[in-house]
Amino acid sequence: MCLGIPGKVTEVYGAEGLQMGMVDFGGVRREVCLAYVADEVEAGDYVIVHVGFAISKVDEEEARRTFKLLEEISELDELEWMKEVAEQSLSVLESGKNPSPAGPDQAPPAGPS
Amino acid sequence: MSIASTGLTCPVPAGDADRVLLGHGSGGKLSAALLRERFLPRFGNEVLSVLGDAAVVAVPGEEIAVSTDSFVVSPLEFPGGNIGHLAVHGTVNDLAMMGAEPLYLTAGFILEEGLPFDVLDRVIEAMSESASEAGVMVITGDTKVVERGKADGMFINTTGIGRLDPEFRPGPTRARDGDVVLVSGPIGRHGVAIMAAREDLRFEVEVESDTACLAPLVEGLRASCGPAIRSLRDPTRGGVASALNEIAASSGVGIRLEEGDLPIPGPVRAACEMLGLDPLYVANEGILVAIVAPEAAGAALEALRSQATGVSAARIGTVTAERPGLVLLRTGLGASRVVDMLPGDQLPRIC
Amino acid sequence: MKYLSEYRDPVLARSLVEKILATATRPRVLMEVCGGQTHTIVRQGLQEFLKDAVDMIHGPGCPVCVTPLEQIDRALFLAARSDVIFASFGDMLRVPGSDSDLLQVRARGGEVRVVYSPLDALEIARAHPEHEVVFFAVGFETTAPANAMAVWQARELGVTNFSVLVSHVTVPPAIRAILDAPDNRVEAFLAAGHVCTVMGWKEYEPLAAEYGVPIVVTGFEPVDILEGIYMAVRQLEEGRAEVENQYARSVRRSGNEPAQELVSKVFELVDRAWRGIGEIPSSGLGLREEFADFDAERKFDLGSIRTSEPEECMAGDVLRGRIKPFQCPAFGEACTPEKPLGAPMVSSEGACAAYYNYARFQPETTGEPV
Questions:
Q1: Residue A74 distance to chain C (closest CA, Å)
Q2: For burial by CB atoms within 10 Å, which of B20, B24, C168, C191 has the most?
Q3: Cβ pair B347:C49 closer than 8 A
């Protein structure tokens, strides 16, 4: 639970005792209550917003670190393996039949390990 | 306005001179004044001015196309247009989707008591402009007024009549295996603009309704590809997903879409993310989907892109004989999922 | 969209899938707790990519689905009152009560409004002093701070025509209930990233230790979920049972302390019934006594509401992960999104709706036993 999306704080102001802000979600703007991130957030920061409240400030350092980690384990080359799964997925839906089960004697899809 | 004082309460209080009253729908002097002062000057044409109980027009050919639609949008005015634009475009476009050249429109109004005249004027102005642009004549109409609270400002019904070309008859049953699915422009703008304009969700977005007359795009397709255009549909309520499901069901074919090829503007995407909506189900009022024979797909795209309303036209999928009635979407990750009809309106969600 | 689109990158997703398949030495059973995660898994077809290496069981992480029938019926009763404007998140509008839903109440003249934020419901109250405004405060811990703030502000601003109908549930007791079930197959959990953004992950450490299950706090995009699965599988293979944090860009161990503070000022832990599961002690939030004026259950007379659940609905078994939706005899027949028997067929992230909308044509939905 659930729907929280990241947005950029463009303005911070007070309203009726609450810290509020305008947040831009890539072209959509909405007023968001910043009360729960008031001490850490200023214009230019990214926040995760759920039902009109910022519940966290996006830790850009963490995001960068984990992304680098992900990029290291990813092979940025051919997508043949992906295509295979895609074709199979489509053909399974189209034929409405079971795909042949992968038994112990069948090799897993080829790909760099 | 001078009212002789007789000690009776005047049913036309001076303070209400700027808005619609129940009397405007009763067929008497107020109704006549409304017609004469507000509708006729904007719709004026020789047929309408006769003000007969029925309009008499010549319609060429043995078959004609007729379409009717009612418009109940709230708010009445929104970024990119108002209910008047929708009322003309909606019906004109339905005619165009059958390959017909729109000729005439009727316009029936149900006005809510208290509707300000300046709003009414803007709506009629929009209808008049849109009708001229589409080359259609508003030939007859009707106005009723209901009590405050019984109509969201106003409801409009338009019925359109169009001329058919026997050589150009796109229809929902004509899609077949191997055909290509095209869309003439970006998806989701109208629905998002409406949601933003309504009070309850309170967000701002630089997205305007795409309301537009599609007849010129259709004419371009007819001229360049003729019968290779199998089906045309304007994806209004229910969005692209519903329109394609209807064609798939009517034609007994399957449709396969590529998620990466769908033209969805950034702000539409962002608004949908925020509200938990799927752009494929969001209403459009100024784009069409076209099912085209594969050998004509290139020419069709070119014909669409050569016009201002079609510059972002794109190929979004194909038609197949497999699993008739099923619309599948291949996601960015490569798996496929079903794109079904929704039971009702899409609702914003928090989960 | 920044911090969103990157986590949908197909190449990264594929690499993670390969890592998972290469790491799992035998089939593993995992549960994702949060409905939003279920939504992504089913919508993106992630189970297909995972093949037999990982079986994702969908947990009861849909607060809409677990809202007790009594609360729905109370909501319908209030919404039908002519002096009430009933405000709700969109998710709740089609959830069936004993014999109706909010959309039908609206059709019959009840004033029902969809809002995006609880503060918007408070605004409606301020704009309509002649009406009572009741807001359906549903959710997990993620939404509690927002709902708490609406009540807090109402009191601060002296708004007297605003109240909330509360149906808040908390996650850790549900996980415990699942782990305690004698037929439990779940070996590791993906904890809900936004719940933990608010609450942190301290509460999960005793669960991981006591039951010996890895728990990975996970986000919602495909790359997040696949990374979370990878981390959980790796723990299982290495014989570890710890709490790890995949969603580090949003979650810290202590969570959001100002949010927790206001929640504890406004709410207190109560026993709560979970629709389809039954009562779980101390698993819900209720308004504290000093906020009684804002509690719709105390403000209005909701006495004699009789509830009745359709017998064929197997929502409980689905929510506990005992069966997959297509194994319910009513699935797709007596129970569809158009005429749902229970909440999981209505909520966009309910497991039944997710299967119906996205996966019902796939072979594993043809009824083979799990």
A1: 5
A2: C191
A3: no
With respect to residue C370, please indicate whether it lies within any of the assigned structural domains. Answer: no
Instruction: Say if residues C90 and A51 touch (Cβ distance below 8 Å).
Output: no
pTM of the model: 0.86
Which DSSP letter does residue A53 get?
Answer: E
How confident is the model over C136-179, as pLDDT tens digits?
Answer: 999 999 999 999 999 999 999 999 999 999 999 999 999 998 89
Position C369 scores a pLDDT of 28
Which segments of chain B have a pLDDT < 50?
A: 1-7
Question: Residue C181's domain spans which residues?
Answer: 1-314
pLDDT at A36: 98
Which structural domains are found in chain A, ordered by start? 4-60 (2.30.30.140), 62-95 (no CATH)
Cβ neighbours around C242 below 10 Å, total = 15
Name all domains of chain B by residue range, CATH numbers in brackets.
Answer: 19-163 (3.30.1330.10), 180-338 (3.90.650.10)
Same domain as C346, residue C287 = no
Same domain for C163 and C285, yes or no, is yes
Same domain (yes/no): C181, C215: yes
- Whether C369 is covered by a domain: the verdict is no
Same-domain pairing of C347 and C259: no
Helix ranges, C220-337 (H): 222-238, 257-266, 296-299, 315-319
Residue C118 touches chain A, beta carbons under 8 Å: yes
Q: Are residues C253 and C343 in the same domain?
A: no
**H or E segment and range at residue C84:** strand C84-88
The alpha-carbon gap from A81 to the nearest alpha carbon of chain C, in Å, equals 8
Residue type, C183: D
Residues 6 or more apart from B27 whose CB is under 8 A from it?
none
In a 13 Å sphere around the CA of A62, the CA atoms on its Cβ side amount to 13
Q: Which of A28, A82, A84, A90 to mutate to test the interface with B (most CBs of B within 10 A)?
A: A28
Residues C350 and C255 in one domain: no
Q: Which site among C6, C11, C89 would you substitute to test the A interface, given the most A Cβ atoms closer than 10 Å to its Cβ?
A: C11
Mean pLDDT value of segment A16-34:
94
Amino acid B248 reads A
Q: Do C247 and C186 sit in the same domain of this protein? A: yes
pLDDT digits (tens, 9 = 90+) for B214-261: 999 999 999 999 999 999 999 999 999 999 999 999 999 999 999 999
Peptide bond preceding B75 in cis form (omega within 30 of 0): yes
Instruction: Tell me how crowded residue C184 is: count the other CB atoms within 10 A of its CB.
Output: 18
**Structure tokens that stand for C152 in this block:** 């807090």
Would residue C365 count as lying in a domain? no
B–C CB contacts, 8 A cutoff, strictly below: 93
Give pLDDT, residue C297.
94
**Partner-chain contact C1 A26, CB within 8 Å:** yes
In A, minimum Cα distance to C26 occurs at A104
Tell me which residues of chain A, numbers 16 to 75, contact chain C at a CB-CB cutoff of 8 Å.
16-18, 25-26, 33, 35-39, 46, 48, 50-53, 55-56, 58-60, 62-63, 65-67, 70-71, 73-75
- Where chain C has pLDDT below 70, the residues are 347-349, 358-370
Q: How many domains does chain C have?
A: 2
C-alpha to C-alpha distance for B75 and B198, rounded to whole angstroms: 6
Write the secondary structure of C37-53 as one string of H (helix), E (strand) and C (coil). Answer: HHHHHHHCCHHHHHCCC
Mean pLDDT of chain C: 90
Q: For residues A99-113, give the mean pLDDT.
A: 36
A83 touches chain B (CB under 8 A): yes
CATH number at residue C123: 3.40.50.11740
Mutation target for A interface from B195, B273, B320: give the one with most A CBs within 10 A: B273
Specify the pLDDT at position C349: 65
Residues of C in contact with B203 (CB under 8 A): 116
Residues C139 and C217 in one domain: yes
Note the pLDDT of residue A94.
Answer: 63
Residue corresponding to tokens 């819900």: C284
Q: What is the pLDDT of residue C4?
A: 85
